[in-house]
Write the structure tokens for this entry.
Amino acid sequence: MVTIIRSNGQNSELIIKEGRKVASYGAHVCKSGLITRVTCGFVKAFITVSTRKNGAGMIENLIYYGKDTSEISSGGDSRCPVFTYSRDLITVGLVGIHVKRLTVISEYLPLEVILNRSDVELVVS
């Protein structure tokens, strides 16, 4: 079984090889959204907190990412994979799930938080 992410580049499918933890400001991360497809930005902040749209609580331990000059996500991209490219640009490491955008900044829930708080297991190729 091959676990993939849809891409809009010359490689139409990116193979997920591992889960990764992003631990540095400025790290390059990408997401594959339903609306905006694959777009990339840089980690801007760690351990952030966001309120839910309907006021039903908060989401903690998010990571902010984006570009200073343009949006990298749109409404409809929520719950898409956030990843980092491997050197071969065909395989990727999953780092989290996109939660929402705030103008030019987007937020994702890190993979380690998802795995620690739920009864799910990462399946890779």
